[in-house]
Amino acid sequence: xxxxxxxxxxxxxxxxxxxxxxxxxxxxxxxxxxxxxxxxxxxxxxxxxxxxxxxxxxxxxxxxxxxxxxxxxxxxxxxxxxxxxxxxxxxxxxxxxxxxxxxxxxxxxxxxxxxxxxxxxxxxxxxxxxxxxxxxxxxxxxxxxxxxxxxxxxxxxxxxxxxxxxxxxxxxxxxxxxxxxxxxxxxxxxxxxxxxxxxxxxxxxxxxxxxxxxxxxxxxxxxxxxxxxxxxxxxxxxxxxxxxxxxxxxxxxxxxxxxxxxxxxxxxxxxxxxxxxxxxxxxxxxxxxxxxxxxxxxxxxxxxxx
Length: 306
What we know:
By secondary structure, this protein is mostly helical. It has one domain (58-253, 277-300). It is built from 16 helices and no strands. The radius of gyration is 18 Å and the shape is globular. The protein starts with a helix and ends in a 6-residue tail after the last helix.
C-alpha cells in the first residue's frame, strides 16, 4: 500500500494532475506520515529530473533575454552572495552552529540551495551529519517558500518581472524558484529561471575560493546543466521551425518539475526535522528572512531591476 501511494504520487505529478505546489504538498504528506525505502533513489532521481527539467524549460526561453537578464544581474548577484555569506557566517557563530554546517547553510541560502551544498561539501570536508543538517534546513525552507511567496507577491501586487526576480534572489533551490514562479505567470517563470541559473554559476568561484582558503584539493563540481539550458535557448532562438517541438519539451520540463518536487517532499521526514535541530534551523530562518526582506525592499524601491 505504501509503495503504491509513492508511485501514484509520481504518476499524478508526471501527468500534470498535481500542480508543482500540490505535488510538493503530497510529497510532504507522504514523507511525514509513512516510512518508505526509496529515500536514496528519490534523492538521485530528483537531482537528475531537476537538471533535465531545467534544460527542457530552456526550450521556452529566448536567448537574447537570457543574455540580457544574466548580464544585468551580475553586480547585485555578487553583492547579494557576499552579503548572505557574511551574515550567515556571523549568525552561525552567534548561535553556536558548527562552522561547517553554518557555512553550508549560508552558501545554500546565498547561491542555490542543495546544489551549492553538494558542491561545497567535499571542499569543506563536511561530514555526513553536517550535509544532512544543511540539506534538511534548506529543503524545509524551500517547501515553505513555494507556498508563501506567491501569496506575498499577490498581496503586494508585484509585477511578474518583480516576482520572478525576487524568487530567484530569495528562494534557495532552483526547483522551488521555478515552482513558485510558474504559479505566478509565464514572464515570472522566464525571469526567475534565468536569474537563478546565472546565480548558480557562482558555485564555481565560491567553491574555488573556499578550496584556496582551506587548501583543499577536492574536486569541484561544475553545474554543467546550465550550459545545456543555454544551448536549448540558442536552439529556440535560431531554429524557429521546430517551435512546436520546443513547446512540448518546455511542457515536459514543467511536468518533470512537478515530479521533482514530489520526490523532494517525500525526503522530508520526521527524522529529517529531528536531525536538523533548533539552532541550524534558526540560523537558516533568520538568514532567509533578512535576505528575502532586503531583496524585496530593494526591488520595490527600484534599486534592483532588470
